[in-house]
Fold FAD-binding oxidoreductase.
Amino acid sequence: MTTRLPLPPSLYADTAVAPVATPPLDVDKNVSVAIVGGGYTGLSTALHLAEQGVEALVLEAQEPGWGASGNNGGHTNPGLKHDPDQIEADFGPELGRRMIEFAYGTTNFTHDLIRRYQIPCEARQNGTLRAAYHEASTAAIEKTAQQCIRRGMPVKYLNRAQLREMTGTDRYVGAMLDTRGGDLHPLSYARGLARAAISAGAKVHGETPALSLRREGSRWRIETPRAVVHADKVLLATNGFTDDLWPALRRTIVPVFSSIAATAPLSDAVARSIMPTRPVLYESGHITVYYRIDQQNRLLMGGRGPMRWIKSPYDVAYLMRYAERLWPQLKGVAWTHGWNSRLAITADHYPHVHEPAESVLISLGCNGRGVALATAMGAQLARRLIGGATVEIDMPITGIKPIPLHAFWPVGVTTAVIAGRVRDRLGI
Ligand SMILES: Cc1cc2nc3c(=O)[nH]c(=O)nc-3n(C[C@H](O)[C@H](O)[C@H](O)COP(=O)(O)OP(=O)(O)OC[C@H]3O[C@@H](n4cnc5c(N)ncnc54)[C@H](O)[C@@H]3O)c2cc1C
């Protein structure tokens, strides 16, 4: 018997809509598609399969949204980590163009889906700011903005004075505003996706870890603690919690923690003095800080934290100190929650889709921007699962390549964080 791990002690766990029932699987099943992982990737794929009448069954070790999906910053950010020109250089004009169109369309896709299923998750589309606090990084942001504008995207470059108005601080020298970005309540959204998938006909089982996966004749056999699933096709969507279900997959990602600290609701005046129009913002330094003000006027500050589970905002006191440095009016405000979860970073910073055997698809590595991306990937993955290898999707399907010296990643991350802090301070 397994026992479910509790949700991290987040603001979201205390304020989300109630979960839909997802009982553990206790009878053997025969299905068309089995999906391992009940985050946005797995749930969105299940929903898009079910919409097309394909029987999908999700196996989630804990509960839907328990992983990064129920604990993230809640920013819906368009695009990939890399600039559009870089994407075309890396993947050629045809696939590159499709990837750009897809990745920059993910936020509209997600907000449309939320409207279509009327998912109550406090979704808004007030824009994403990617902001620089050093002259050195403004050039890079300006370049990204120009590449987006050249492609007809709703993007603007903002200067220091405009940013002071939008963020209530002098910290930022330049930023790109993409009006397609926005925010939502991550756990309510994950639960809403699970509800939508189930209402469309998918089956979702919590407290049901997939323990092993192997071929049996022309099908796949997945063992779980109480029952066995036989499936024609399988999707692995385990992201930063990837285990040894598929050989070497764990070594293709670095599962880093990201942390968030949240204040109690701020007065209207203070909230307005910070972000009057409520976009979301992420900094373009080597150590990214991201923040937003939610619909109850709480400030949610996110960034790198300890590489272990945390329980309180005092575990990430630097985020509170940084917020007070940006907005001295916050001094004395109560910080009520601090939590974290694990996301998957890939070596090339692109999301990875693999098809390591016939009828097995793997999707992971949204590199910290999976809210909209993983949702939209779900529709692409469903297309490929239904249509098979002849159906092209708007992301490359690549081989599984373990990261060299993967065992040393904790040391590598620590070194990168220290180096990043120094480079951020020096503006290089
Ligand atoms: C603190 C934090 C802040 C972030 N902020 C943002 C943001 O603001 N904007 C943004 O776009 N992205 C953000 N991200 C990234 C985003 O949350 C992820 O990219 C996205 O949620 C990934 O979804 P997923 O479904 O692929 O993975 P997850 O949501 O992590 O789901 C994987 C699931 O697989 C399950 N699982 C693992 N192994 C098994 C098994 N063997 N059997 C059954 N189940 C299994 C796990 O229990 C887990 O629930 C953030 C991430 C973190 C951690």
User: Anything to note?
Assistant: The chain has a mean pLDDT of 94.
